[in-house]
Design a protein that fits this description.
about 110 residues, mainly alpha, Helix Hairpins
Amino acid sequence: MAVLLVAFFVILITAIVIFQSEHEIDPVTGKYIFKNFYDAFYWAAVTLTTVGYGDFYPVSNLGKTLSIISSLFGIATIALPSSIITADYMQELNRRVKAKMGDTDSQEEDQQKE
């Protein structure tokens, strides 16, 4: 739950910063990149989760720098905790499988670790 809360606040702050800093007009379409805050929030969520659809993208140097930083925060806030949780889950699953199979050696090792 804490990871989701941190991710939401990082998305929110990133969206606010990119919306305020990206005032450039897209040279291809001639329109503003982020027409409203929802576009910036959507971009921040997609960038933070490292999906990167490419339908919204910054064109200014500041916006590009913010997108790099946002991607790095995405890795730090979502990918790393997810891998840690998955590793703990797999360890517990393996322990339960061994216990179910009657592997007394692994049970003794677990008791010694505690």
